[in-house]
Design goal:
GO terms for molecular function: nucleic acid binding. Pfam families: Integrase_H2C2 (PF17921). InterPro entries: Integrase_H2C2, RNaseH-like_sf, RNaseH_sf. It is a single chain. This protein folds into 2 domains: about 80 residues, no CATH class; about 120 residues, Ribonuclease H-like superfamily/Ribonuclease H (Nucleotidyltransferase, domain 5). The chain is built from 10 helices and 4 strands; from the N terminus they run ααααβββαβααααα. Helix 6 crosses helix 7.
Protein backbone atom coordinates (compact mmCIF):
# COMPACT_ATOMS: atom_id res chain seq x y z
CA UNK A 1 0.00 0.00 0.00
CA UNK A 2 1.36 3.45 -0.96
CA UNK A 3 -0.26 6.15 1.21
CA UNK A 4 -0.21 9.73 0.02
CA UNK A 5 0.04 13.21 1.53
CA UNK A 6 -0.82 13.80 5.16
CA UNK A 7 -1.68 10.13 5.73
CA UNK A 8 2.04 9.37 5.85
CA UNK A 9 2.57 11.60 8.87
CA UNK A 10 -0.36 9.98 10.67
CA UNK A 11 0.99 6.49 9.97
CA UNK A 12 4.46 7.37 11.24
CA UNK A 13 2.97 8.89 14.39
CA UNK A 14 0.77 5.87 15.11
CA UNK A 15 3.53 3.34 14.39
CA UNK A 16 5.76 5.10 16.89
CA UNK A 17 3.44 6.17 19.72
CA UNK A 18 0.02 4.65 18.98
CA UNK A 19 -2.10 2.79 21.54
CA UNK A 20 -0.30 -0.56 21.16
CA UNK A 21 3.08 0.79 20.14
CA UNK A 22 5.96 1.58 22.47
CA UNK A 23 7.98 4.65 21.45
CA UNK A 24 10.60 2.35 19.98
CA UNK A 25 13.50 3.66 17.88
CA UNK A 26 13.83 4.49 14.20
CA UNK A 27 14.64 0.98 12.98
CA UNK A 28 11.78 -0.76 14.81
CA UNK A 29 9.31 1.91 13.73
CA UNK A 30 10.46 1.45 10.14
CA UNK A 31 10.07 -2.33 10.35
CA UNK A 32 6.47 -1.93 11.53
CA UNK A 33 5.69 0.36 8.61
CA UNK A 34 7.40 -1.95 6.11
CA UNK A 35 4.95 -4.70 6.95
CA UNK A 36 2.10 -2.93 5.15
CA UNK A 37 3.22 0.40 3.66
CA UNK A 38 5.71 1.89 1.23
CA UNK A 39 6.47 5.39 0.04
CA UNK A 40 9.59 7.28 -1.13
CA UNK A 41 11.80 8.76 1.61
CA UNK A 42 9.96 6.82 4.31
CA UNK A 43 13.12 6.43 6.39
CA UNK A 44 13.69 10.19 6.31
CA UNK A 45 10.14 10.80 7.54
CA UNK A 46 10.55 8.32 10.39
CA UNK A 47 13.94 9.73 11.40
CA UNK A 48 12.54 13.24 11.46
CA UNK A 49 9.54 12.27 13.60
CA UNK A 50 11.48 10.11 16.09
CA UNK A 51 14.21 12.71 16.52
CA UNK A 52 11.55 15.25 17.57
CA UNK A 53 9.55 12.97 19.88
CA UNK A 54 9.60 14.76 23.25
CA UNK A 55 8.83 11.61 25.27
CA UNK A 56 11.74 9.73 23.66
CA UNK A 57 14.16 12.62 24.13
CA UNK A 58 13.27 12.86 27.82
CA UNK A 59 13.66 9.10 28.32
CA UNK A 60 17.00 8.86 26.51
CA UNK A 61 18.45 11.80 28.38
CA UNK A 62 18.32 9.90 31.68
CA UNK A 63 19.77 6.57 30.50
CA UNK A 64 23.41 5.58 30.94
CA UNK A 65 25.68 3.33 28.84
CA UNK A 66 25.89 -0.38 29.60
CA UNK A 67 28.97 -2.00 31.03
CA UNK A 68 30.56 -5.14 29.62
CA UNK A 69 28.43 -8.28 29.41
CA UNK A 70 29.18 -11.99 29.47
CA UNK A 71 27.10 -13.76 26.78
CA UNK A 72 24.55 -16.26 28.07
CA UNK A 73 24.37 -19.81 26.67
CA UNK A 74 22.17 -20.10 23.59
CA UNK A 75 18.71 -21.60 24.21
CA UNK A 76 17.17 -24.02 21.70
CA UNK A 77 13.44 -23.95 22.50
CA UNK A 78 10.82 -21.46 23.76
CA UNK A 79 10.41 -21.05 27.52
CA UNK A 80 12.97 -23.71 28.40
CA UNK A 81 15.60 -21.22 29.51
CA UNK A 82 14.52 -17.94 31.05
CA UNK A 83 15.97 -14.83 32.66
CA UNK A 84 14.38 -12.91 35.51
CA UNK A 85 14.93 -9.58 37.17
CA UNK A 86 13.12 -6.63 38.75
CA UNK A 87 12.65 -2.99 37.83
CA UNK A 88 12.56 -1.22 41.19
CA UNK A 89 11.92 2.29 42.43
CA UNK A 90 8.87 3.10 40.31
CA UNK A 91 6.15 5.46 41.60
CA UNK A 92 3.70 3.65 43.87
CA UNK A 93 0.36 3.14 42.12
CA UNK A 94 -3.13 3.12 43.60
CA UNK A 95 -2.87 -0.69 43.80
CA UNK A 96 0.33 -0.41 45.84
CA UNK A 97 2.67 -1.58 43.08
CA UNK A 98 6.11 0.00 42.85
CA UNK A 99 8.12 -2.63 40.95
CA UNK A 100 8.00 -4.81 37.85
CA UNK A 101 8.89 -8.50 37.82
CA UNK A 102 10.49 -9.07 34.38
CA UNK A 103 10.60 -12.60 32.93
CA UNK A 104 12.29 -13.17 29.55
CA UNK A 105 12.30 -16.27 27.36
CA UNK A 106 15.89 -16.43 26.14
CA UNK A 107 14.94 -18.28 22.93
CA UNK A 108 12.18 -16.07 21.51
CA UNK A 109 12.96 -12.97 23.62
CA UNK A 110 9.26 -12.88 24.59
CA UNK A 111 8.88 -10.99 27.84
CA UNK A 112 6.29 -10.78 30.60
CA UNK A 113 6.08 -7.59 32.68
CA UNK A 114 4.38 -8.34 36.01
CA UNK A 115 3.54 -5.51 38.40
CA UNK A 116 4.34 -6.14 42.05
CA UNK A 117 5.49 -4.38 45.23
CA UNK A 118 9.01 -4.28 46.59
CA UNK A 119 8.13 -5.61 50.03
CA UNK A 120 6.68 -8.81 48.54
CA UNK A 121 8.30 -11.91 50.05
CA UNK A 122 9.64 -14.94 48.18
CA UNK A 123 6.37 -16.85 48.47
CA UNK A 124 4.45 -13.99 46.84
CA UNK A 125 6.96 -13.81 43.97
CA UNK A 126 6.71 -17.58 43.54
CA UNK A 127 2.92 -17.26 43.36
CA UNK A 128 3.20 -14.54 40.69
CA UNK A 129 5.66 -16.69 38.75
CA UNK A 130 3.27 -19.63 38.72
CA UNK A 131 0.21 -17.51 37.84
CA UNK A 132 1.83 -15.46 35.08
CA UNK A 133 4.53 -17.74 33.64
CA UNK A 134 4.17 -21.41 34.56
CA UNK A 135 0.42 -21.29 33.85
CA UNK A 136 1.18 -20.25 30.25
CA UNK A 137 4.49 -21.93 29.44
CA UNK A 138 5.22 -24.67 31.96
CA UNK A 139 8.28 -24.95 34.18
CA UNK A 140 11.62 -23.87 32.69
CA UNK A 141 14.78 -25.95 32.90
CA UNK A 142 17.07 -23.05 33.76
CA UNK A 143 16.58 -19.63 35.37
CA UNK A 144 19.19 -16.90 35.24
CA UNK A 145 19.35 -13.35 36.57
CA UNK A 146 19.42 -10.68 33.86
CA UNK A 147 20.33 -7.11 34.77
CA UNK A 148 19.65 -5.72 31.29
CA UNK A 149 16.44 -3.80 31.97
CA UNK A 150 17.62 -0.39 30.73
CA UNK A 151 15.53 -0.57 27.57
CA UNK A 152 12.42 -1.36 29.63
CA UNK A 153 13.02 1.64 31.87
CA UNK A 154 13.34 3.91 28.83
CA UNK A 155 10.21 2.47 27.25
CA UNK A 156 8.22 2.93 30.46
CA UNK A 157 9.35 6.52 30.86
CA UNK A 158 8.29 7.28 27.29
CA UNK A 159 4.89 5.59 27.49
CA UNK A 160 3.77 6.45 31.01
CA UNK A 161 4.40 10.20 30.82
CA UNK A 162 1.93 11.72 33.29
CA UNK A 163 0.40 8.40 34.39
CA UNK A 164 2.84 7.77 37.23
CA UNK A 165 0.09 6.67 39.62
CA UNK A 166 -1.48 4.24 37.13
CA UNK A 167 1.47 2.79 35.20
CA UNK A 168 0.38 -0.74 36.12
CA UNK A 169 -2.81 -0.18 34.07
CA UNK A 170 -0.65 0.41 31.00
CA UNK A 171 1.81 -2.43 31.58
CA UNK A 172 -0.11 -4.92 29.37
CA UNK A 173 0.19 -2.40 26.51
CA UNK A 174 3.93 -2.16 27.06
CA UNK A 175 4.23 -5.95 27.07
CA UNK A 176 2.27 -6.30 23.83
CA UNK A 177 4.31 -3.58 22.11
CA UNK A 178 7.60 -5.07 23.30
CA UNK A 179 6.70 -8.56 22.06
CA UNK A 180 5.25 -7.33 18.76
CA UNK A 181 8.28 -5.44 17.38
CA UNK A 182 11.24 -7.08 15.67
CA UNK A 183 14.11 -7.92 18.03
CA UNK A 184 17.54 -6.76 16.88
CA UNK A 185 19.15 -10.13 17.70
CA UNK A 186 16.68 -12.54 16.12
CA UNK A 187 15.43 -10.22 13.33
CA UNK A 188 11.92 -11.44 14.17
CA UNK A 189 9.34 -10.44 16.77
CA UNK A 190 9.04 -12.57 19.91
CA UNK A 191 5.42 -13.28 18.96
CA UNK A 192 6.47 -14.66 15.57
CA UNK A 193 9.15 -16.91 17.04
CA UNK A 194 6.95 -18.25 19.85
CA UNK A 195 3.69 -18.67 17.91
CA UNK A 196 4.66 -18.62 14.23
CA UNK A 197 2.77 -15.42 13.37
CA UNK A 198 2.41 -11.77 14.36
CA UNK A 199 -0.87 -10.84 16.09
CA UNK A 200 -3.27 -8.35 14.54
CA UNK A 201 -2.96 -4.73 15.59
CA UNK A 202 -4.80 -1.53 14.65
CA UNK A 203 -2.56 -1.50 11.56
CA UNK A 204 -4.85 -3.89 9.71
CA UNK A 205 -7.75 -1.46 10.14
CA UNK A 206 -5.60 1.41 8.88
CA UNK A 207 -4.67 -0.68 5.85
CA UNK A 208 -8.26 -1.47 4.90
CA UNK A 209 -9.29 2.13 5.42
CA UNK A 210 -6.47 3.50 3.29
CA UNK A 211 -7.17 1.04 0.48
CA UNK A 212 -10.77 2.21 0.50
CA UNK A 213 -9.72 5.85 0.39
CA UNK A 214 -7.26 5.22 -2.43
CA UNK A 215 -10.10 3.86 -4.53
CA UNK A 216 -12.46 6.71 -3.69
CA UNK A 217 -9.69 9.33 -4.13
CA UNK A 218 -11.37 11.78 -1.78
CA UNK A 219 -8.51 13.60 -0.09
CA UNK A 220 -10.71 15.59 2.27
CA UNK A 221 -12.28 12.38 3.53
CA UNK A 222 -8.95 10.77 4.44
CA UNK A 223 -8.08 12.77 7.52
CA UNK A 224 -11.63 12.75 8.85
CA UNK A 225 -11.95 8.97 8.66
CA UNK A 226 -8.44 8.26 9.91
CA UNK A 227 -8.87 10.56 12.88
CA UNK A 228 -12.21 8.97 13.72
CA UNK A 229 -10.61 5.54 13.49
CA UNK A 230 -7.71 6.52 15.74
CA UNK A 231 -10.08 8.09 18.26
CA UNK A 232 -11.90 4.78 18.43
CA UNK A 233 -8.64 2.95 19.14
CA UNK A 234 -7.74 5.43 21.86
CA UNK A 235 -11.00 4.65 23.62
CA UNK A 236 -10.57 0.89 23.21
CA UNK A 237 -6.97 0.72 24.40
CA UNK A 238 -7.08 3.39 27.11
CA UNK A 239 -7.60 1.72 30.50
CA UNK A 240 -9.01 4.97 31.88
CA UNK A 241 -11.99 4.84 29.55
CA UNK A 242 -14.70 2.79 31.25
CA UNK A 243 -18.36 1.96 30.60
CA UNK A 244 -18.03 2.62 26.87
CA UNK A 245 -21.33 2.09 25.06
CA UNK A 246 -21.32 0.99 21.42
Amino acid sequence: CIPQGSIRKILVKESHEGGLMGHFGIEKTLLLLKEKFFWPHKKRDVQRFCSRCIACLQAKSTTKPHGLYTPLPISNAPWVDISMDFVLGLPRTQRGNDSIFVVVDRFSKMTHFISCHKVGDASNIAKLFFQEVVRLHGLPKTIMSDRDVKSLRATLRAILKGNKKSWDDYLPHVEFAYNRVVHKTTKMSPFEIAYGFNPLTPWICYLFLILLLLFTKKEHLELTLLRSCMRGFEIIFNPKQKNIQI
